[in-house]
Design goal:
InterPro entries: Acyl_CoA_acyltransferase, GNAT_dom, N-acetyltransferase. This is GNAT family N-acetyltransferase. It comes from Actinoallomurus oryzae. It is a single chain. By secondary structure, this protein is an alpha+beta fold. Helices cover 30% and strands 24% of the residues. It has one domain: Aminopeptidase, CATH 3.40.630. Strands 4, 5, 6 and 7 form a four-stranded antiparallel sheet that branches. The chain has a three-stranded antiparallel sheet with strand order 1-2-3. The longest helix has 18 residues. It is globular, with a radius of gyration of 15 Å. It starts with 16 loop residues before the first helix and ends with a helix. The model has no long low-confidence stretch (mean pLDDT 94).
Length: 161
């Protein structure tokens, strides 16, 4: 999945097997560190691995950090089936009901319209004044402009699910 150029289109580069394994190690460490992280996603009927979703803490400084992010990455064959939306909603339920966070953010490259549609479907809101240039990307990198979406616990509990 991480080596697929279409899946990784809105990331700076695809990942090698070694880099993907290192990512998994970091994900597992985050569970110990924060008590939450990114979960493996499987199709309920088949058990087929299709990607991941969950909560993470951004590793950079920006106007909205420190923060907790809801994120996802799915294999290309899993796109268009509603899995990202369903999984992201479940992650938000966990964030607000179990972890008791006050707010969760999500962000992506301004070109990643698929993920932005998921953010919209799960009830997150975007204020264009919140959009930012990703500090870990070079100033001339085409993916540097990012959009920021937000969801508060109050809005979530008031039925924005």
């Amino acid at each position: 999945m991480n080596a697929d150029p279409e899946v990784m289109e809105h990331f700076p580069a695809t990942l090698t097997r070694h880099e993907s394994d290192a990512l998994i190690d970091r994900i597992e460490t985050r569970f110990d560190e924060y008590g939450f992280g990114l979960w493996a996603l499987e199709v309920a009927e088949t058990g087929q691995f299709i990607g991941f979703t969950g909560l993470s803490v951004p590793g950079f400084n920006a106007h909205f950090t420190p923060a907790v992010e809801v994120g996802w990455r799915l294999s290309r064959s899993s796109w268009g089936h509603g899995y990202a939306t369903e999984a992201a909603r479940r992650a938000l339920t966990f964030a607000f009901d179990d972890v008791e966070l006050a707010e969760v953010v999500s962000f992506t490259s301004h070109t990643n319209l698929r993920s932005q549609m998921v953010m919209k479907r799960i009830g997150m809101t975007n204020d264009p004044a919140d959009n930012f240039d990703h500090p870990l990307l070079d100033e001339d990198h085409p993916l540097r402009p990012h959009v920021l979406w937000r969801m508060t616990a109050e809005r979530w509990r008031n039925g924005t699910r």
